[in-house]
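Lecture notes, continued. The same structure-token format from the folding unit now serves as the input rather than the output. Read the line below as a description of shape only.
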């Protein structure tokens, strides 16, 4: 079942608002980026495009202010384009992307343990 949940996920991250600037594209399924310094992209995220092409409503993106899934966070559920992160612009240091809806409780567990859900590829610095 985890395999099906991870298929069809696509995420494009942009350093500029309105999907401009440097782009990082992720289309390999669920992923956890513990530290955006691995991509030289720390505190640079300004907009993104998020899709689950198989089940559009079944995708969660959690942006964390600090590395290792710490600090304040913003949650986005369902396929969507966000052209401007507003008050969270240029503040993201780590993220989790999964092909299902994560609950706030599950996000709290991720923060307390520093571990993403099972079946998620982890990218470290």
């Amino acid at each position: 079942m985890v395999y099906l949940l991870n298929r069809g996920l696509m995420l494009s991250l942009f350093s500029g608002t309105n999907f401009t600037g440097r782009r990082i594209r992720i289309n390999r399924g669920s992923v956890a980026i513990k530290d955006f310094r691995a991509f030289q992209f720390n505190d640079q995220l300004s907009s993104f495009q998020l899709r689950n092409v198989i089940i559009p409503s079944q995708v969660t993106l959690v942006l964390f202010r600090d590395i290792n899934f710490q600090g304040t966070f913003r949650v986005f559920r369902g396929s969507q384009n966000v052209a401007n992160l507003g008050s969270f612009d240029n503040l993201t240091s780590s993220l989790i992307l999964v092909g299902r809806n994560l609950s706030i409780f599950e996000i709290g567990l991720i923060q307390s343990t520093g571990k993403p859900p099972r079946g998620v590829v982890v990218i470290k610095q």
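Point for the exam: Residues 2-123 form a domain with the Gamma-B Crystallin; domain 1 fold (CATH 2.60.20.10).
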